[in-house]
Structure formats: structure tokens, C-alpha cells
Amino acid sequence: MLGTEETPFLSISDYGSVLSKIEHAWESFMIDGTSSPNLLRSPILQSWQRSKEKHVPFTLKNAPLEMDDSRVSSEKERLKVLFETMNPYLDDIVKTLPNDYMAVTFSNEKGIILDCRSSRKLLDQFQDDYYVPGADWSERAFGTNGIGTALERGKAVQVFAAEHYCKIAHKCNCASAPVREPVSGVILGVLTITAQRHIFPAHNLNWAISEVQKIERALQGRLQEESGTLFNLLFEKADQPGIIFNLDGQICRINKLAQTMFDAKPGYALDNIFDFSVKQSELIKCFNKSFAVVYRKTRQRFIVTVMPWAVGEYRIGGIAFFHQERTNVASTHRVMLSPGTRYAFSSIVGQNSVLLKTIKLAEKASRLDATVLITGETGTGKEVVAQSIHNNSCRKDQTFLSVNCGAIPKELIASELFGFEEGAFTGAQKGGRKGKFEAADGGSLFLDEIGDMPLEIQVYLLRILEEGLITRIGSNKTKPVNVRVICATNKDLRQEVEFGRFREDLYYRINGMEIFLPPLRNRLDDLPLLVEHFLARFDSRYNLDTDALAKLMDYSWPGNIRELKNVVERAAFLSDGTIISTQALCLPEQKRVITSTHSKQIEIATQKELNPKLINQVLQECGGNITLAAQQLRISRMTIYRKMKKFGLNL
């Protein structure tokens, strides 16, 4: 007997007698309304009851046909990425089918068959039952069956002959397994292996599950390749609370920061956590927009930016990024953020005079359409300023894209920036692909770590900046692009030019306006504000005691704001209470080498000429460490050596 197990066990010797008993149980249920729990598995009996409640006629002669060939083609186009990934596996299944009385189908998330593959003989027979593309095999339409019941339960299921609700389907056995989008877990459709009743389906369910796992792994690889930046932004960097949700507003995946801040986990409904300024039913209309929500537990207001989560062109949900609403004295109006961005000038925290002058300069730069070069040490917020410039510019309604020139392998950076044609190289994607310049056409492209761009690519970048034309790899045709380029680096590009690692003509071309971001050690008066900001975003109940703040003020912050954020959040995690003491702070044992007085001296001196007294003083405080002294003086090591030689200084 099959019993009540989720996964049935059936021996070939019992097969005929068990099917006969299920047939009697089916007749009793349909005619008399009596159920036989000892004869039926619970998932099947529950499905029969659902089908009856939905008034599905068990006498249906075929499944309803919901789509014609044209609509099926459109639906397959909507799922293009999935089908491109899945087709090789469907082909392999068909080749492996042991006889002409078996088939493999794929249905969409609504239970409508989109693809059916088998022998011609069996396909002709399927026409009579409408087991064909376009037919609706959901439970709502056709009662208990592999496709509909797998969707209803959200898990794999095997349905034997008379376990089908409609008698016309009793001539087949079905093994169905849902195919899910790997990140969110949203069901994209159902893979079904079907066999005629007389064929003993020994391993069909395990086979279907195994093939689905292969498809999901292949899909995950493709999505990581195409959407890896977005995924890493959400779950790896985790610098903002982030939630992936499905179209029903249910959380599918949530990063650690959001989990901690909102006390939420997958399966929770967004409208049970937040009060929305828009109806949740209209949430999908808010993609690429920002709006206010209120966290119900604390009544804190957050600004949420929602972006679509999709498999190719098929939207399955959205990604929401949250940041706490705050008012900035320099900008009190609400800013609508451009797609792909999370920051505006109002996002920048600080009242330091040098920082405010920098922001004012960046605001002026945003109103021009010239190339901008943002310089500063790592962790000072160069991308924040880049996004702010874009969101304050005439291109704010267009795309903002970011490329880290130092993170992409030398061999791939050209195709990433300029795109490629089909067949341009081994493994090139069918149909080719746009590069970042084409994708950002009309908007802004942020080239981070521009100092790490290979020399051979720099010449192509120079041509694009001067002529506004790109040429895909493998093509001889040029395409015009209208892109505002914003560059950033933590290197001394003048020094890189001297060493022959950066083109001089490109340096002068991108340096239309240079914006220097001061390191955190030169704006320590902003540190309390930044700590307050990070704690409010993490959990507003936390505060720093006086000694802990003093310890942070006495540290040199080589990692700047990024390091401060990590230290503050780690301290909140480690703190035994809501008042963070020095014991919870994890700081490297490092002497703070520059006092605020020296910082001001350097700020003045670098605008003119560094004097030998200041250089000698910094060298002594750094213990003769040239690299550290160069960092404090904001000059290159070679420049220090030249100054030492010029002034006759010795270590």
C-alpha cells in the first residue's frame, strides 16, 4: 500500500492491486463523498477535498485551454532566461526516456503548460486530453494532478493514475517538482515527467527532483553572472537593511542587518512589519522609486527604495533597501533617488567645514555635465558623493551604473565596459551583450578605482570621452553614447602618470573637476554625528558612553568611515546592554599619529608647500615609516623621498 507518506513506496508486484484499490477509493469519494484515509496518502486526499471545494467537475473530458500558440510563445519569451537555461536539460530527459510512452513537460507558475516533449505517437494522444502547451493544469482548473498539486503544496509530488481527480487523467502517472528562483525561492514553474498507466514509475519522482536541482544550480550560476553585483550589494556588503520579497509582499530572503533591525525572517508579510505610504497591492508599481514606511514596533520612519527582482524579463518580486529618514540642515527637501542609487547629498552626515566646502563643490559639479574626478582614501565615501552628484544632476531620471575597475580581471574589463558581439570570443553570449557604457546611455557611469584600469583600456576610454562613440568587441561598427562619467581613485594619479602606469592625456581629460574627500582623522568633529547615525540605522536603542567615544576620537581611522561603521555595528552586537562601553570596542592597537593641530597644519600646507619642519615632525611620529607618513601627509611615498632629499632630511 502507498500509506500516508509524502514520498510513496510501491513495489512492482503490488502495483496492479494498489491501483485497483485507489480506483475504488476514488469512486467512493466522488460518488458517495466518503474518504478512505487508510488507502490514500494524505496529500492526495487533501487535494481531492480542495478540488471538491472548488467545484471542479471530476467528469471533465479535458483540461481547459487558456492560451493559444501566440500567447504561449509570448509567455516563453517572458521566461526566456529560464528556458535558455533549462532547454539542454529537457533535451537530455527526452533522450533518456526509456520508451515512447513517457513525456516531460514544463508549466509556468500558474499551472499552464508551456512545453511538452515526447514521441509523436504520445503527443497525438495528448491532444485529446489537452495535455498540451496552453492548457491549464492547475488544481483550480483540473483538480488533483502532478502540476497543480505541486504548485498548491510548493513541493514535489507523485500522482498515480486514479489519484488524479478527473477520471480522464487516470490513464497516466505524473511526477512533478517545482522549479524555484535560487535566491528568493519563488516558484517559476513545474517540471513533470509523465508516463502511461501501464508503465511502473519506479524512480520518476527522484528523477524529476534531480533534474530540477540541476536546472536550479545552472540558473543560479547564470544569475550570479548577470546579477552578481546586485546580489553582493544586498547580502555581502550588507551596509543597508535589505529584503527580497515576492509579488504577494512576502519576505523571501533578508540580510542580517534587516533581520536584526526589523526582527523579521523569511515568510513574514511586509504589511505586518511596516505601515506603507502606498498600498501593498500597489508595491509592484513602485519599482525604482523611493517612499516612506513606518516600522510598526518602534514607529521609526524609513525611506525605502524598491528595485525589481527578475529572471531576465520575468519579474518575480522586488528588493527593498531601507535607510532611516533624517533631515539635513543643508537640504531639507525629499529627494527621489535614481534607479540603481541609494544616496543623495542629504545622505551625507557631517558639519565639518572642509566637508561642507567639499559638498558645496560637488553640488556645483552636479549642475555641470563635465567629467568629475573624486579622490580620497579608501572608505571616505567616494561612491556616496558620485551617486549624490548624479541624483542632483539633469540626468537624475536616468540610469546610474557603477564599475569597480580594480575588481574586474584584466581580460574581462573591455567586454564589461564596451560590450561584445555574438561570436566575439569563445563562450560569448548568444546575441552579444551591451557594455556598461551602452547600458548607462543617457545617465551616469561611475568608474571606481580608475587608477587600476589597464593602460591598454585607457586609450579606448579616452576615445569615448572625447568622441562619445563606443565599439563592441568583435564589431567594426561604432555606436554613439551619451554618458556622464564620474571617476574615483585612492591613488595619486599624477604619481601614476610619472611612473608610466596612467596616461597623461586621460588624466587631464577626466580631471575636469577634482573633488577631494578628507579622511576621517581630519574631520573628527563629525565622528559623534557619524556614530549616532550608524547606531540609529542599526538600532536606535544603543548609545556610546563617554569613555567609548573618547577612545574612538583617539584612533587614527585608516579605514575611514567604512571602518568606523563596522566598529560601531560590531560594538553594538558585542555590547551586553544598550550603553556601549570601551570593552565592546574592537580597535587595533595603533597610536593615533596625527593630532588635530597637525591635521590642520597639513590641510593648510598641502594647499601650498609642505615645509621641512612638518615633514620631519610627521616622520618622527610615524617612527620613520615612510608609507604611514605619506598617508598622513596625503602625498605619495616618492614625493616624501623627493622632499627629504630637497630639504636634507634623514630618518
In short:
This protein is an alpha/beta fold and 651 residues long. Helix content is 39%, strand content 17%.
Structural summary, described in words:
By secondary structure, the protein is of the alpha/beta class. It folds into 4 domains: 15-219, 2-Layer Sandwich (Beta-Lactamase); 235-516, Rossmann fold (3-Layer(aba) Sandwich); 520-584, Orthogonal Bundle (Helicase, Ruva Protein, domain 3); 596-647. It is 39% helix and 17% strand. The protein is built from 23 helices and 20 strands. The strands form 5 sheets. The chain has a 6-stranded antiparallel sheet with strand order 7-6-11-10-9-8, sandwiched between helices. A 5-stranded antiparallel sheet has the order 2-1-5-4-3, sandwiched between helices. Residues 327-334 and 591-608 have low confidence and may be disordered.
Q: Which helices and strands, and how do they pair?
A:
Layout: H1 15-32, H2 42-53, H3 69-78, H4 80-96, E1 102-108, E2 113-118, H5 120-129, H6 139-142, H7 146-153, E3 157-159, E4 172-180, E5 187-196, H8 204-237, E6 242-246, E7 251-254, H9 256-262, E8 274-276, E9 289-295, E10 300-311, E11 314-324, H10 353-367, E12 372-375, H11 382-391, E13 400-404, H12 413-418, H13 436-439, E14 444-448, H14 455-467, E15 469-471, E16 478-480, E17 484-489, H15 493-498, H16 504-510, E18 513-516, H17 527-538, E19 543-544, H18 546-553, H19 560-574, E20 579-580, H20 596-607, H21 612-621, H22 626-633, H23 637-647
Parallel strand pairs: 12-17, 12-18, 13-14, 14-17, 19-20
Antiparallel strand pairs: 1-2, 1-5, 3-4, 4-5, 6-7, 6-11, 8-9, 9-10, 10-11, 15-16
Helix pairs in contact: 4-8, 10-11, 14-16, 17-19, 21-22, 22-23
